[in-house]
Amino acid sequence: MLRPLIKIWYQILVRFFWKKIPGLLKFQATEAESAWQLERIIPCLPSPELKRDVFEHYLEEMYHAEVFAKLAKIEAKNEGFLRMPRTPMAERQAICGPNDETWRFFAFLAVGEASAVKQFSRITHALEEGPLRKALRSILRDESKHVVDAKHHARELADPEELKLHSKKLRFARFKGEWMRQGLIVTDTTSTILLWLMYWLIAPLGARSAKRKIYGPRLPCNEASIPNMINEGQAT
Fold first, then answer.
1. What is the distance between the alpha carbons of residues 22 and 39, in angstroms, rounded to a whole number?
2. Predicted model pTM
3. CA of 15: how far to CAs of 18, 19, 70, 177, in Å?
4. How far apart are CA 218 and CA 202, in angstroms?
5. What pLDDT shows up at residue 118?
6. Of the spans 124-128, 148-152, 206-210, which averages the highest pLDDT?
7. What DSSP state is assigned to residue 129?
8. Per-residue model confidence (pLDDT) at position 194
9. How far apart are CA 136 and CA 114, in angstroms?
10. What is the rounded distance in angstroms from the CA atom of residue 25 to the CA atom of residue 181?
11. CA torsion, points 105, 122, 80, 17, in degrees to nearest 10?
12. Which of 70, 73, 40 is nearest to 57 (CA)?
């Protein structure tokens, strides 16, 4: 029951209220952040094979960030922007330190990539055919593979029960944060719609009142009174 409603909500949100350029720049920042985290974890990994896999993941995230940056530039050019908006920069903090267990990093990565897959999938379905939808489909395939790989590496390095419990906590924290963000979007969208309605309903009434104050009340006028008004004007 909830899934169809979410799908409809994303259709409305993406087609009418989604600001593409800030959205794409935010995706770019997220992908760059993910690449930074991957780069930091590589020296801590226990095997050359694992380092190779993570390095390939790092390169793909850097490529995704570049794709989103190019798409944002195309959208800015199409919309007539003279200057590109700034890419939002979040404060970076390593998920996993040198002394932490690396399986926790992969558990966090799996949950984060799964969330990205869900979000990109909903946006892709809501978009019309074009370069943006085509690029998102390609990125979506890579992100789906990243989820599988991150889960596989986490299972290889962690105790199954501990991994299960930790992943549940991460998914709940992600779910809570996602609903808070969606709540802010709903509030912002509802406020925009209400302001739009107020403008179109109240503005005409306000315009009439303003005209009356500026020009004064309308004087009654008929054909019989016109000669009298002319004579009064000549007399003065």
1. 26
2. 0.67
3. 7, 9, 21, 24
4. 22
5. 86
6. 148-152
7. S
8. 73
9. 15
10. 17
11. -110
12. 40
What is the residue extent of each domain of the chain? 2-185
Q: Using CA atoms, how far apart are residues 105 and 62, in angstroms rounded to an integer? A: 19
pLDDT averaged over every residue in the chain: 78
Can you give the length of the chain in residues? 236
Contact residues for 35 (Cβ-Cβ < 8 A; gap 6+): 58, 61, 62, 65
Q: What would the two tokens of residue 1 be?
A: 């029951």
- The span from the CA of 70 to the CA of 90, in Å, is 20
Is residue 25 a contact partner of residue 44, using CB atoms and an 8 Å limit?
Answer: no
Cα 232 from Cα 228, distance rounded (Å): 6
The answer to whether residue 230 scores a pLDDT higher than 70 is: no
SS3 199: helix
- Token code pair at residue 77: 């050019």
Was domain 2-185 assigned CATH 1.10.8.60?
no
Q: What is the pLDDT of residues 148-177, one digit of tens each?
A: 999 999 998 888 888 888 888 888 887 776
What gap in Å lies between CA 97 and CA 103, rounded to an integer?
12
Please report, for residues 21, 43, 147, 229, the alpha-carbon distance to residue 176 in angstroms, rounded to integers and kept in the order given. Answer: 26, 32, 20, 75
Structure tokens that stand for 166 in this block:
């930790």
Position of tokens 């995704």? 64
